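re: that complex we talked abt at group meeting.

here r the seqs, copy pasted straight from the sheet so there may be weird spacing, ignore it
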Amino acid sequence: MATETTAAEGSSLVFHPMDQFIVKPLFGDGAVGMFTITNVTLWLFFAVLTVAALLVLPTSKRAIVPSRMQSVAELAYGFIYKMLEDICGKEGVKYFPYVMTLFMFIVCANFLGMIPASFTTTSHFAVTIPLALAVFLTVTVLGFVKNGAAFLGLFWVSSAPLALRPVLAVIELISYFVRPVSHSIRLAGNVMAGHAVIKVFAGFAAIAVISPVSVLAITAMYGLEVLVSFIQAYVFTILTCVYLKDALHPSH
Amino acid sequence: MATEPIAEEVAGTCVDSYGSAIGMPQLCFDWFPNQIFWLVITLVVIFLVLSRVALPRIAAILAERQGTITNDLAAAEDLKAKAVEAEEAYNKALADARSEAQRIAAEARAEIQSGLDDAIAKADAEIAAKAAESEKAIADIRAGALESIQVVAKDTAAELVTALGGEADAKAIDSAIDAQMKG
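got the structure back, here u go
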């Protein structure tokens, strides 16, 4: 991408590391409206297909002795199920499909974003903020529905000395409302930064002398990004479980 | 990338006239409704697919596998218990057979012993009878011999008397001989 631009502009190196995140209509050149079918739509659709290909297709035989892909599906199931059960206890298991949806979507979208020339949906705040807000609102509503006013005990640290409690309550309150912000920016920021860095290295590949270094750097970054793709999905999911635990058991 | 300048109203506020991003495309709020709309649809579809199809199916597979393993373990436990039982039965049968054999041997020994005792007693009785018979025969013979001696003595005495020119008085000889014989 950057090389094309360089050629087009004819002179010095010009990097456009953020161009890969531009939302474009798939058909025609019109403006992006709410219901326009865009590259976002396409790659979200691929995410749905990937989830189905991972969890639905391989399990269709319901084999007692699983095939490789069925093992993958079972491992993913067991991984998230155990995480949720360990953190939230038996009451948390009810919300397993919800947590599993988040995890499978994020992990599939992250890895689809690793395909060269693909569009990374999870690099956009427009995607991660609704995800984080959904978790935040669910946890808050669930906390009040399950515990009533006792949910406010989350902010009143009863194990601390009485004089400190109002101060701690303010800090707890701020940290509670910062949760959706950090939750969403962590995911989008990590994914976006990695992809942008790879693009910057790709821009340097236009210079013949530097290009071997550039290719090596891209390879290294790609490896790191594969790691980040999984870890960020894991972190998002485990934080969702932790927040859910607060809603189910608000006492410290 | 588009190298031709594009229309201002199509580009909006996020893309310059060469199609490149202005600042961070992530902060372009023009695109938010579109992204959020498709995201919600995606999440709903994934949630429905997972909660209706994939997760119940995987849960069923895992439960079935757990059940199979439990059943197999129970069956193995059963078979093991049966094997132990069979071994016990075998050992018991062996012990029974051994004691039966000992009993039979003892019985046979006792039978033989009693037969032997009978035979010995019978033989003893026979021997005693034979001895008594022989004694009687000896006594008879002895008595016969005495009588013979008496007769011979009487005859001899009578002859001697006659030879010496006397008259043999049978009565006197008899009494004399009897007196002599009695000692």
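couple things i noticed - DSSP finds three helices and no strands in chain B. The radius of gyration of chain B is 69 Å.
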